Amino acid sequence: MGTTTAARHIRDNSSVTAHLEKRLLVWIAHRLPDAIHSDHLSGLGLASMAAAGLAFASFRVTPWAALGVIIALTANWFGDSLDGTVARVRHQQRPRYGFYVDHVIDLAGTAMLLAGLAGSGLMSPLVAVMVLAAFLLVSAESYLATHAAGVFRMSFLGFGPTELRLLLMAGALRSAVSPVVTGLGVGPVRLFDLGGAAGGAALALAFIVSSIRNTRALYIAEPMPTATPVASTDVA
User: Fold this and answer.
1) Is the dihedral of CA 172, 176, 177, 179 positive or negative?
2) How far is Cα 8 from Cα 28, in angstroms, rounded to an integer?
3) pLDDT, tens digit, for every residue of 78-109?
């Protein structure tokens, strides 16, 4: 029953770019060669996230690594965002398989991306670990909510995966010029440390808000049952 609930969930994406992105993805899916199917795109999504991590790590060698980050994240958007759309357009959905594989790839890809950032010199390894921990908390809560409530929320306060990719691209470009920011009253701070701290805090807030909202909704849907008195029997 649990897998069926997760497989038939509603996808809730209220990010800023969601409407335009959906139309673009459907347009691309209708024009994609038949030889390319959803599994190819899922594989591209994972490989390109690994490439993004390697590109960030390459900042220790050259600031031109920013170009690699942009190319890799664009490829990741193409593969990760398009695989499900292609399956739906072609009526080739595999709900349980797709749900599982898609989110396993998300978890592995995010770990590889943050490993690359931790080794890049752009972000402190401690900040990278904190961001990963916050991401895993939000991911686990969203998967539980999908199972229990049948709704998978993909964004928080208008911010979703595509917006995150755009921010990472902008951060890579800015770091190619200078990886630190000043004027904060505490001396130079690495841009990605600042962004990572803000991102980790936002993820923690999303976890708290989502947990409270879903707990309340489920409590209302399943109120505490009224205890039924147990009839006593006389013992001779």
Assistant:
1) positive
2) 25
3) 999 898 899 999 999 898 898 899 999 999 99
SS3 186: coil
Task: Pick 75 or 160 by higher pLDDT.
Answer: 75
pTM: 0.86
Tokens describing residue 129 = 């670990």
DSSP 40-73: HHHHHHHHHHHHHHHHHHGGGT-TTHHHHHHHHH
Can you tell me the distance from the alpha carbon of 65 to that of 71, in angstroms, rounded to the nearest whole number? 10
CA 136 to centroid of chain Cα atoms: 9
CA distances in angstroms from 200 to 57, 122, 138, 147, 193, listed in the order given: 20, 16, 10, 25, 10
Residue 113: exposure state from Cβ atoms within 10 A (0-12, 13-18, ≥19): buried
| C-alpha span between 205 and 156 (Å, rounded) | 10
Q: Which of 145, 150, 114 is nearest to 131 (CA)?
A: 114
Written as six digits, the tokens of 105 are 């790839």
Query: Which residues contact residue 168 at a Cβ distance below 8 angstroms, ignoring those fewer than 6 apart?
Result: 52, 69, 73
CB atoms near residue 202 (< 10 Å)? 15
If phi > 0 it is left, if psi is from -120 to 50 it is alpha, else beta; for residue 104 that is alpha
